[in-house]
Amino acid sequence: MAALGSISFLRSCGATTIRAFGASSLKAAPKAVAFAPFNPQRLSPPLPSRRLISHVRATSNEEDASKAAAATADSGAPTIFDKIINKEIPSTIVYEDDKVLAFRDISPQAPVHILVVPKLRDGLTQLGKAEERHVDILGQLLHAAKIVAEKEGILDGFRVVINNGPDACQSVYHLHLHVLGGRQMKWPPG
Ligand code: 5GP
């Protein structure tokens, strides 16, 4: 339950940070090598600074995208998940019943990364919109998360995450649980 309560997630912020870090290193290296003897200190700022700069850039993109998505969250327009639920676009389905669909995340942040969604959104653009009438489906989503973890063989250690709102980098406004596992999880999350 701590994971649900924290509503935070390592995913793309962490992954993008690594990509940004790699890209800046690749650009900087040829210039420094051409005009000076090799000195790692010249290539870039000290490691902690580079990490900080890259992290700020990556999270800023992530946050902008999340804010843009939040702006239209309550428009009622279908999301990408509606298209997946309606089988209009393909996904790798791991579990399905009459209320819940679980499919592999297109950008996995762990060896196992599955999204568990209610087939009917019914106002649940995000957990923060939950009302009394949603109690059953919220329970079914958690139960489906456990079934998915069992099917994937990660019952010994998995994480369930809900990103809620722009401050948590939610990008799709159709409630979904991330089920992550298959590697050692760290704490605290990013
Ligand atoms: P959020 O950022 O809202 O917590 O999570 C949305 C998740 O949906 C992200 O992890 C993202 O990779 C995933 N996602 C976005 N578009 C698609 C898609 O078209 N197919 C699948 N399978 N996952 C998607």
Overall average pLDDT: 78
Order of helices and strands: HHHHHEEEHEE
Shape: globular
Helicity, as a percent range: 40-55%
> pLDDT below 50 for ≥5 consecutive residues: which ranges?
1-58
Whole-number radius of gyration? 20 Å
Category from helices, strands and their pairing:
alpha+beta
Annotation, overall tally of beta strands: 5
This entry's quaternary arrangement is: single chain
Number of helices: 6
The order of strands across the largest sheet is 1-2-3-5-4
- How far apart the termini lie comes to 17 Å
Q: Tell me the fraction of residues in β-strands, as a range.
A: 5-15%
User: What ligands can be seen in this structure?
Assistant: guanosine-5'-monophosphate
Largest sheet: 5 strands, antiparallel
Active site: 176
Motif (Histidine triad motif): 174-178
GO molecular function: adenylylsulfatase activity
Domain HIT: 80-190
Quick recap of the structure?
This protein is an alpha+beta fold and 190 residues long. Helices cover 44% and strands 13% of the residues. It is built from six helices and five strands, in the order H-H-H-H-H-E-E-E-H-E-E.
Report what the structure shows.
The chain is α+β, with helices and mostly antiparallel strands and 190 residues long. It has 6 helices and 5 strands, in the order αααααβββαββ. Helix 2 (11-35) crosses helix 4 (47-71). It has a 5-stranded antiparallel β-sheet. Helices cover 44% and strands 13% of the residues. Guanosine-5'-monophosphate (5GP) is lined by residues 11, 80, 91, 103-107, 115, 163, 169-172.
